[in-house]
Amino acid sequence: MPSLPPDLVERARAFARGTGEVSPARDAATVVLLRDRPAGPEVYLLRRAPSMAFAAGMHVFPGGAVDPRDATHATAWAGPPPQRWAELLNCGEELARALVCAAIRETFEESGILLAGSSSDDVVADTTDAGWEDDRLALLDRSLSLAEMLSRRGLVLRSDLLRVWGHWITPEFEPRRFDTRFFVAAVPDGQRTRDVGGEADQVVWMPVSEALQRYRSGDLAMLPPTAVTLNELMAYDGVPAVLAAARRVVPLMPRAVVEGDDVRLVLDAPDGERPADAVPQ
After folding, report:
1. pTM of the full structure
2. On the CB side of 81, how many CA atoms lie within 13 Å of its CA?
3. CB neighbour class for 219 (10 Å; exposed up to 12, middle 13-18, buried from 19)
């Protein structure tokens, strides 16, 4: 796997010596946007700008930290209720509501795709005009909440368009940490992503197989959860199969192993299975 940046290597060494501090992990949500093409499923990736404090230069899925307003009960809702999401996400109902709202809000902020409609069986057809862009920017600067935007437009959040995929926690030696639930979703018919800028300096649709191959060749930099998720998606021949997959979601947190001059990430598998490299080789 690619080497850790020098500053993280030193933090990992300090943590192994017992002198490092553990930063709290912020709740977050990430959505793997997918679409079908003749050659197989494609995935939407953003490259985080070099100026970003977290994961600079890394290729990631849309996502980010929970906004406290994401938990508001004012958000119009369709699909599985928060109680059901709490079971799926293994958390409290209020946090489950916030995570689902954050997933849909962050996806709109970072791709222009909005998983919402005028009813439980409808979805917005297009989000590319100037009015939608004004709303997206207002969500980004937090002058507008997701609940306010949906209410003003007479829309309901479509939680049924999401599926739970994974749960990753940033390693303890990292200075910025997130407790992130991963979701998957198909791009609704009629909607299209666009280069929205902001935290990303590049966006791209790419076959899952190509993204993984380019990661392995060193052409695309990724954090372990992104690479592992792509590797998992290789088992499916289309988006419907991904959405229908039965997932056992357990929290995963890579840890650093220091052996002499070597510092590497490993992932302890659940149920006492053999630890593995934190990313597919």
Report:
1. 0.89
2. 3
3. exposed
